[in-house]
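Shipment paperwork, digital attachment
Item: protein structure file
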Amino acid sequence: MTDEHCDAVMDLNGRSVLAASRAAIPHLKAAGGGFIINTTSIAARNGASNGAGIYGSSKTFIANVTRGMAKELIPFGIRVNAVAPGVITTPFHERYSTAEQMQPALNAIPQGRHGTPEDCVGVYLFLASNLLSPYIIGQEIEVNGGQLMT
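Attachment content:
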């Protein structure tokens, strides 16, 4: 792995979350509160697949940043949580992953299928709702068809 590749992955998955949060926080404070929902990954827990260790590491960074931000921002009424999708069929996988690469993950998913972006929508809406999740702070919600159970 080159330094350039490492920097690109960390910029995309780590620094982008920090930059977006930094831009949003003054507005959320001025509004008297709100929420930030970060996206981590099952790769933060299982180390990712072969060749994707830096991706998993970047998502672990997001998981930890989520907890740190949650502690710092809850006094301002800003709830910070994260969603941790499992293997989700996205244009990224369609472009870069072969069926042979996707099969081991599929074999480890008790639900018997890869996830879809639509499978993740409900948890984001739940975490964005002050009615449904007002006391949920600093958490990661796994959306992976049961993959972590195996």
